[in-house]
Design brief:
- The protein is α+β, with helices and mostly antiparallel strands and 392 residues long.
- 25% of the residues lie in helices and 29% in strands.
- The chain contains 11 helices and 21 strands.
- The protein has a 10-stranded mixed sheet, with helices on both faces. Strands 13, 14, 15, 16, 17 and 18 form a 6-stranded antiparallel sheet that branches.
- The termini are far apart.
- The relative contact order is 0.09.
Length: 392
């Protein structure tokens, strides 16, 4: 099978390499693999790059505008390659992005955290476009990489691209949550889809001392972090390495929250206190601080929803997933204090405020000071010391 002819003299790709090196994501030992395995090899003709400024996806079609297509392929942005589990039709974006090519700096930072060496066997959970499996195969050899994908159409397209360019990992269609015992044991398991629970199957399928690397988060929101777990017996424990945002494993997508259900559950009461000293940026995005991630770690069965700002005001809502309790904090431009309302048996704002001050009292630690321990009996999070943990 002959390979598609890709443009090689692309200033954008050279610039992407420079960005990766300067960010620290691409080390010298990975540079030959980056040069050999081109992201563009794995992208479909019709795709939807994500604009980090507008936080929206745009349509790019290689057949209609190849220059724009290559420019998008070489940008350091995530690119959606499937909407709505494949049900979406038409050139425009769909409702829910369900497969993608991750941001290159994120991908190569994952490889740095993974710490692979020649001869290691790796399970790649979430084949997607096939790029991650292709990169690992180039580095480790075809007999050492197994990649698993739940969507048969996505897996088939990835397999075709991998074979087209002479890369031959073992490509499996299946539920990545269950791993792939037929090719176990592995030295490393890398997930490029987000999880809320570390599967016990992964721990069982890895060698003692092996590493599980996965984007992990709670139901609280999209403020996730990469966790690097070392497997010891039935348990796996380790620190979070960096903040990320990944689409979730299909079996672990969050529950649907209907705002009107909560508002009809009880009277709205103004909280006894206002949110003095709490900044809008801390609650709106994990880009500025680790607070959204920490709130998810410390407040069980709760999710956050950030509304659009209108006329200088932005509400941030908190919904209980164990009952219909809710809280809302309203930030207004130019005002130091934010108004707060809450309703229901859980005093959600009280919980949020308590965790906020707990975090601030400890020096506002970032995600790298937190860690996770996964056991057959559940998961526990910790700050600095695994011996002082709490269930999540």
């Amino acid at each position: 099978m002959t390979a598609d002819v890709l443009r090689t003299d692309r200033p954008g790709r050279k610039e992407l390499g420079r960005v990766l090196v300067e960010s620290g994501a691409l080390s010298s030992d990975w540079a030959p693999t980056f040069a050999a395995v081109d992201r563009a090899m794995f992208l479909p003709d019709l795709m939807w790059p994500y604009d980090l400024d507008t936080r929206a996806s745009t349509t790019v079609d290689k057949q209609e505008d190849p220059d724009a297509w290559y420019a998008a392929a070489d940008r350091n942005v995530p690119i959606v390659t499937q909407w709505d589990d494949g049900a979406h039709q038409g050139p425009g974006p769909g409702k829910l992005s369900t497969s993608s090519s991750s941001m290159p700096t994120v991908v190569y930072a994952l490889f740095q955290d993974l710490g692979v060496d020649k001869g290691m066997r790796v399970l790649d959970v979430g084949t997607g476009t096939g790029e991650t499996a292709g990169v690992l195969t180039h580095r480790l050899g075809p007999g050492n990489v197994t990649t698993i994908e739940v969507d048969g159409a996505v897996s088939g397209a990835a397999r075709e691209r991998l074979c087209r360019y002479g890369l031959y990992p073992e490509v499996v269609v299946g539920d990545g949550f269950e791993g792939h015992p037929d090719s176990a044991p592995y030295d490393r398991i890398l997930a490029t889809v987000g999880v809320r629970e570390i599967p016990d199957a992964w721990v069982r399928q890895i060698r003692p001392g092996g590493i599980i690397l996965a984007p992990w988060g709670t139901h609280f929101g999209n403020a996730d972090a990469v966790v690097r777990l070392e497997v010891r017996g039935e348990n796996a424990t380790g620190p979070f390495t960096r903040s990320v945002e990944f689409m979730k494993l299909r079996a672990q997508r969050g529950p649907t929250v209907h705002h009107t259900d909560y508002l009809s559950a009880g009277p709205m009461e103004k909280a006894a206190q206002t949110a003095t000293g709490v900044t809008e940026e801390e609650f709106v995005t994990g880009q500025y601080t680790a607070l959204p991630f920490v709130l998810g770690l410390r407040i069980p069965a709760c999710c956050q929803a950030v509304a659009e700002k209108r006329d200088g005001a932005r509400p941030v809502w908190f919904y209980s997933l164990s009952d219909l309790s809710w809280a809302c904090v309203m930030f207004r431009d130019g005002e130091r204090e934010a108004e707060v309302w809450q309703s229901g048996p859980r005093r959600l704002w009280d919980e949020v405020s308590s965790v906020y001050h707990w975090w601030r009292d400890r020096g506002s630690p970032d995600v790298t000071r937190f860690g996770l321990t996964a056991t057959p009996y559940g998961q526990r999070a910790w700050l600095d010391d695994p011996k002082e943990s709490w269930p999540v």
